[in-house]
Amino acid sequence: MIFLDAAATTPVRREVLEAMWPYLTGEFGNPSSHHTLGESAARALADARASVAAALGCRPGEVTFTSGGTEADNLAVKGIALARQAADPAVNRVVISAVEHPAVEESARYLERFHGFSVDVVPVDSYGQVTPKSLGDVLRPETALVSVMYANNEVGTVQPITELAALARERGIPFHTDAVQAAGWLALDTKALGVDALSISGHKLGAPKGCGVLYVRSRTRMEPLIHGGGQERGRRSGTENVAGAVGLATALALSQARQQDQQARVTALRDNFVSTVLSAVPGAVLTGHPTDRLPSVASFCFPGTSGESVLLELERQGVVCSSGSACAAGSDAPSPVLTALGIPAEVAQTAVRFSFDSSVTAEDLSAAAAAVGSAVTSVRALGAG
To answer: Most exposed among 63, 245, 357, 380, judged by the fewest C-beta atoms under 10 Å?
Structure first.
């Protein structure tokens, strides 16, 4: 099997499992307990927090461990917006892009339904990018928060986050970015990016599912969503997942250490894969930005097919990837991300995404490209789509 669905999840690294193992076995203490086992767990949690902070270029106290990227996005969008509204009821708008992950979009819609917020959606261009001008056009004095993802999970387009964050900062508006897909591939220095909040998820980096991080700049007000014993400096109550925090910190450090080398290598492999597929499949369309994109994502539309049918044929040939045509499990609606790029609905439903982790090889992608050509030919011959 050739696994090309790393944007969905990645296997847990051996080094991560080894780092976590003590805290799943003998060192099982609760970090809030005042005894030897608890103090050992508290030290491990503090070390993990310091490691993540070093990777993000921030202070350890600005790092909050969560259950994953979805919770981190929810906490940032709802928590910051609600805190701003509490300080000034007139601040009641949130800005998101048209290509956000549902964790951000649904958080904004929740604020709209239950807390009186208005949601301003910034359009993207045909490559899926937000321009500074388009963002500037929707910012208002009553804007509580801007949330624009760093890199898109479906098409891989990278946003000009530094410029967008600077524009929001000029207006005194907090800026959050969902960096779940960017982590491991792009720079995450929060000071250089100029963001006030940033979300990452462990299982996209080689850590287990169920662990994530939210960076929040100090002095940025944020209401907690989970109340209880006041863990995580009051931002996220509940007994901490020490093993998960250790695993995420280990995975992030490993990916950061090899980032430049792997970025260059995988980018070259991706570009060759894209070129081969476009040559092998008549009418194939690359979606997303041709150059400002993640090294790890190549997404296409194959007019004259059904994306799901192509997926099934590829899996039969030993290639596992995903479709960009459904916005949610069980939905046959075209992807809102692709339609936001101006892609017609009937073409959007032919989308297939290939995403790689750092272990991908030239041989993997050569075999996958050949399988794509064969699969699309087979599906078109059957008259699917």
So the answer is: 380
Instruction: Name residue, tokens 């998820």.
Output: 201
Interacting residues of 137 by C-beta distance below 8 A, sequence separation 6+: none
Residue 328 pLDDT > 70:
no
Task: Report d(CA 127, CA 206) in Å as an integer.
Answer: 29
Quick one: pLDDT at residue 332? 67
Angstrom distances, CA of residue 112 to CA of 78, 106, 137, 374? 10, 10, 20, 47
Marked catalytic residue, from 58, 211, 321, 327: 327
Cα dist from 3 to 132, 142, 298, 357, whole Å: 36, 46, 14, 9
Q: Which helix (H) or strand (E) covers residue 276, if one does?
A: helix 259-280
Catalytic residue flag (residue 301): no
- Distance CA(327)–CA(332), nearest Å, equals 8
Angle at 179 between CA 300 and CA 151, to 5 degrees: 25
| Residue 67, φ and ψ in degrees, nearest 5 | -85, 0
Bridge-partner residues for 213, per DSSP? Answer: 65, 200
Using an 8 Å Cβ cutoff, are 252 and 262 in contact? no
